[in-house]
Amino acid sequence: MGRLLEYLENYGILLCNTNPELPALEDIGCTWGDVTALIGRQELFTCKAFQKRTTYLSQEAYHLLKKIRQKKQLTPAAQKIYSILEDGAAAETDFLKAVSSLDAKSYREGFDFLLQNLYVTALHNGKPLNENWSAFLYGTSEEWEKRIPAPAPIENASERLWEILSQTMTERQFRSLTGRR
């Protein structure tokens, strides 16, 4: 857990699965257990912000990215799922799918939209599915933010985020991540 937190604090971003584009969990010698421990402490923000892949962000990288990335309007399916979580509750995806009454395709598209656009994240580890995977209890990013220290004010969020992420990604990848083509 310490290695993962140190990595995120230094480099800001890490992917869950091996990918030639950016370092992933196993590339730095960390495990699923490290991820779940940090999620439970709100030490990382899980999303799909980088190329629609499961992505882990440090607290600082999340706040900077949120500040510079233009927020997309919720799709109808995403709005339906988001409204279930707005009261601050955390829920597993099976519950969200059942309560939203969306068909499987609409649910997946709506939930992925929420993860890709930083609307929701994992707040807690849920039931273990195997030794390398478990369900999460998801909540809104606003709920996650309530559980962590407020970020220090920063004048140029884009420059600071590039300073952190330029250690592991290209300028083209950065522009894609931040929505600045």
Set out the fold topology:
Blueprint: H1 2-11, E1 13-15, H2 32-40, E2 44-50, E3 53-58, H3 59-68, H4 76-85, H5 93-100, H6 104-116, E4 120-130, E5 133-140, H7 141-146, H8 157-165, H9 171-178
Antiparallel strand pairs: 1-3, 2-3, 4-5
Low-confidence segments, given as residue ranges, are none
Largest sheet: 3 strands, antiparallel
Structural class of the secondary elements? Answer: alpha+beta
Instruction: Kindly report the average pLDDT value.
Output: 94
What order do the SSEs take from the amino end to the carboxyl end, as H and E? Answer: HEHEEHHHHEEHHH
Give the N-terminus to C-terminus distance in angstroms: 35 Å
Strand tally is: 5
Indicate the proportion of strand residues. 15-25%
Q: Helical stretch count?
A: 9
Described by the principal axes of the CA atoms, the overall outline is: globular
Classify the oligomer: single chain
Could you estimate the helical fraction of the residues in percent? Answer: 40-55%
Order of strands, widest sheet: 1-3-2
Rg of Cα set: 16 Å
